[in-house]
Write a structure and sequence with these properties.
The protein has 374 residues and is mainly β. The chain has 4 helices and 26 strands.
Length: 374
């Protein structure tokens, strides 16, 4: 798994500066609108191959070029060599911080585990094949560990261990021509679905898992745009993946004739969608909210409202939103508290109608939203 990176060399010290071009860091910088951080790693021939992080903000980088692991403490920009695995057999590839087990998991022929706090070596996990090529790792919610064998076109699983976090020997759970070049893998919100990409065929696959961890079905997902040599893969916020796109226009000039409301019910049914994100005008958002509520599908909606200042001072863009405990409602500003709200808590009649927006809370309070998040 190769991360996006930019390497520059200082003329005197031959240090490698790894700019925050890696997807993980770019995403973080985009969210907080900060200048990209530059991580300095004092090493020759580093070749940063994989990256992971812990909840406290520490960043851990695996080096393919030196078979070492480097760690950057939270809030710092200088990496320190943390683990030296250069005397072990095999290329050092994927790294994954598993805080639930307290282990750093490292692909190197099989899997090596290290104490996530100290870096001390722990268990060595074996893949029962002649020349294993462990490339990337993912942990299921039951504590079992899955790895890709890129050259073998296989997926292996380490069951949760009895006295250690993982069983010391893997079992093969999938072998299929579709898995040729299997590289990155990740679980999203459904622990019975494992997503795997191929660095050679540029495919994205969905693997259905039985309770015992074996793969029962492999689906070649059809994407809206082609992948090009995909590599490491990690879930982002929400742990969800979009895999289907439907286009509608009112005159049928592009896609299907109709509106998003015409396409949404069939789309929800055919894809088994677990959440709906929507941005539209009030009437469309309310109709989408009704469809989602009827099917008990959570939703988040970016509202459209008039804004005068855009800073929260004028209170022009308020939306009446019920409090989580049902004790009343508040006029939340779309520009500061929004623009995304849980539609199950929006007082739609009041927001869309001509009634005065400032009213007393009924003595019995409002219904408490229990089935929707947020």
């Amino acid at each position: 798994m190769h991360l996006s990176k930019r390497l520059t060399k200082r003329p005197t010290k031959r240090w490698i500066k790894w700019a925050a071009g890696a997807n993980f860091l770019v995403a973080a910088c985009a969210l907080f609108a900060a200048d990209p951080a530059v991580i300095t790693i004092a090493s020759k021939n580093l070749f940063p191959e994989s990256i992971t992080s812990t909840a406290d903000g520490a960043i851990i980088i695996g080096s393919y070029g030196t078979s070492t692991v480097w760690r950057i403490p939270p809030g710092e920009n200088n990496a320190a060599k943390w683990i030296d695995s250069s005397n072990s057999k095999g290329a050092l590839l994927g790294v994954l911080a598993d805080e639930k087990s307290g282990r750093l998991l490292v692909c190197q022929a099989g899997v090596k585990t290290f104490d996530l706090k100290t870096g001390a070596a722990k268990e060595e996990l074996a893949i029962p094949t002649a020349n294993p090529f462990c490339n990337d790792l993912a942990v299921r919610d039951d504590g079992s560990l899955y790895v890709t064998d890129t050259t073998g076109a296989k997926i292996f699983m380490f069951a949760k261990g009895a006295t250690t976090p993982f069983a010391t020997t893997a079992v093969e759970v999938a072998s299929d021509p579709l898995l040729a070049g299997a590289d990155g893998l990740a679980f999203l919100s459904d622990p019975d679905k494992l997503y795997v990409n191929s660095v050679t065929s540029s495919k994205l696959l969905r693997l259905d898992l039985a309770k015992d961890g074996k793969v029962t079905k492999i689906t070649d997902l059809k994407l809206s745009r082609p992948l090009q040599g995909p590599d490491g893969m990690r879930p982002i916020d929400g742990k969800r993946l979009s895999q289907t796109i439907a286009i509608t226009t009112t005159d049928g000039s592009l896609g299907e004739r109709g509106t998003v409301l015409d396409a949404l019910p069939d789309m929800l049914e055919s894809t088994g969608a677990q959440v709906v994100y929507a941005a539209a005008g009030r009437s469309t958002l309310r109709a989408i909210a009704d469809i989602c509520l009827e099917r008990q599908i959570p939703s988040q909606m970016a509202v459209e409202e008039q804004m005068s200042c855009g800073t929260g001072m004028c209170f022009t863009c308020t939306v009446p939103v019920i409090r989580k405990d049902g004790s009343g409602f508040d006029h939340l500003r779309a520009c500061t508290e929004g623009p995304v709200f849980n539609p199950a808590r929006i007082l739609w009649d009041r927001w869309m109608g001509d009634e005065p927006r400032v009213v007393a809370t009924p003595p019995e309070g409002f219904p408490v939203v229990r089935t929707w998040p947020g």
